[in-house]
Amino acid sequence: MRHYVMAAVLLALAGCQSTKEDSLTQTDPPLSPVGYGLKPQRESLPMSFANPVGHSPHSTYGRNSQQLFADLRASNVGDTVTVNIALNNNAQFDNTSDRLRESTGQLGGSATIAGGGFGIDDFSLLTGNALVGEATKAKSKGAGSIDRSEKLNLQVATTVTEVLPNGNLVVSGSQEIRVNYEVRVLTLAGIIRPLDILSNNTISYEKVAEARISYGGRGRISDQQLKQKGWMEPVYNAIIPY
To answer: Signal sequence span per UniProt (predicted)?
Structure first.
């Protein structure tokens, strides 16, 4: 009978484990549709486009040919510019704190009472001493350290989504790479100056104002890292933390 009870308890505890299975374990993680990153985070200003100039069918250079003497760097909505990300940051902080506080106090007094009467000839003498002392001590000490190192070397092509009144460009772009059952996602958005764009239509990431760079992923590995625990595991860790 005891074995049946133990088996029933184990089955009940196993049922408490989260049974929600991620659909990514059965199929490949989906990719975002092309143009998804072009959605502006705020309403863009209206911009007019010039009508295309007609050309002769017998011309040597068509409308799609690059102009020899024109500036081909991004300047209008829809143009693309490549952002070079060469992130190599190191941060190290060491903080210590030590606090000690002590206080002492003492209160004392003495009293003598003598008297007679009510048919009593002898004097009764009462002498007392009182002493109250107080002492407190508080001490705290803490230490903390941070040591971080981040390195990222990538290139991402962004699209101009808005031209600000002062001529600066709002750009946004993303890349998605799927390897087996894991999708790596790189997104970048920010504001750039046309003067900072190089002749090869590229710009360095440190010249992107309000830069928002995100590099992450989704898939089987990411799902396992974020998988919800059963309710018994936190209880077990609280009782036996080591």
So the answer is: none
Q: In the beta sheet, which residues pair with residue 208?
A: none
Do the beta carbons of residue 86 and residue 167 sit within 8 Å? Answer: no
Contact 189, 172 (CB under 8 A): yes
Min mean pLDDT across 25-39, 70-84, 111-125, 206-220 is at: 111-125
Q: What pairs with residue 183 in β-bridges?
A: 178, 218
Long-range CB contacts for residues 190-199, cutoff 8 Å, separation at least 24: 191/164, 192/81, 192/168, 193/167, 193/168, 193/169, 194/73, 194/74, 194/75, 194/167, 194/168, 194/169, 197/73, 197/74, 197/81, 198/73, 199/73
**In 3D, which of 107, 99, 103 has the Cα closest to residue 142?**
99
- Alpha carbon distance 238, 207 (integer Å): 48
